[in-house]
Amino acid sequence: MRIIDSESDIGLIAASYVKLRINQAGGKLVLGLPTGGTMESFYAHLVEFYAKGEVSFREVVTFNLDEYIGLERGSAESYRSYMNSRLFDLVDIEPSNIHFPDVYAADLEKAASEYDKKIESFGGIDIFLGGVGRNGHIAFNEAGTPFDAPTHKVKLEESTRKANSRFFGGNINAVPEYAFTMGMGTILKSKEIIILASGETKSEALYRAVEGNISTQWPVSALRLHNNSYILADPKALSQVSSASMAKFRACSLGSCGSKAD
Ligand code: GLP
After folding, report:
1. What confidence tens digit (pLDDT) does each residue in 99-137 have?
2. Ligand 1: does its nearest atom lie under 6 Å from the Cβ of 183?
3. What are phi and psi of 72, to 5 degrees?
């Protein structure tokens, strides 16, 4: 695991890196894509790069990390709508290359295992991008999820529903109780993992990720089990991480240069 700390826009840093990697790969890259407030700037910059002709998504394949169960198809609060309005409707991606866990399937268990098989059929995820919940969840893997869990249905923690109620008019009761999430096992199989975090509310999660025990109680701590994982965060989110750990894990940029922790 490596840490990149930056005072400047972490969404721009991540978007510039993804653009570079898509272009280096000749346009073909498999991405794991998240939602959430932290990622808004990332998508805005990707769309800007596309508009300037600096990158094409024609052959990019995407797998979203998670989706609520129980919302009506096309609901504004669904992660599908979030992605359509911030990226998919604004770039040249092929609709058939966009993947979401099928939360409308009659057999949810089967749909979950098919999602993992689909990811494998594309050779796995090249770059997994994610945010982190205040309680350390990644995608919707809540505390206690085994690190080898496949894609599965989860019951959301009260604290997660409360944090996400801001997207539901502040009404926690409107936030679905269940969701589909890529499992920690699926995520850890990705070739590269980049977790973005900004602001004070994420500082305990990052403290646990870097300094705490590697434990399913803090899913984000699993990053330390992966040999090509990054935390890309601002100083507020990293405020609880000790300077000794920063010296150990700090890297100068995504992909290109290592750190003493390699
Ligand atoms: C939701 C998503 C996560 C995301 C988290 C943090 O719970 N399921 O994938 O990481 O929110 O979102 P935000 O960036 O809005 O804090």
Report:
1. 999 999 999 999 999 999 999 999 999 999 999 999 999
2. no
3. -70, 145
Tell me how far CA of residue 69 lies from CA of 72, 81, 113, 130, 164, in angstroms: 9, 14, 16, 20, 14
Report which DSSP code applies to 177: S
Span from the CA of 205 to the centroid of ligand 1 (angstroms): 12
Written as six digits, the tokens of 121 are 């059929």
Is the C-beta atom of 195 inside 6 A of ligand 1?
A: no
- Residue 96's DSSP bridge partners are none
Our answer on whether the CB atom of 131 is closer than 6 Å to any ligand 1 atom is: yes
pLDDT in tens, 212-226: 999 999 999 999 999
- Separation of alpha carbons 238 and 233, rounded Å: 7
Q: Which two tokens stand for residue 49?
A: 């790069």
Q: Whose CA is nearest to atom 5 of ligand 1?
A: 133
Reported in sequence order, the residue ranges of 144-197 that DSSP labels E, i.e. its strands, are 152-155, 178-181, 192-197
- What is the bridge-based pairing of β-strands 30-33 and 66-69? unpaired
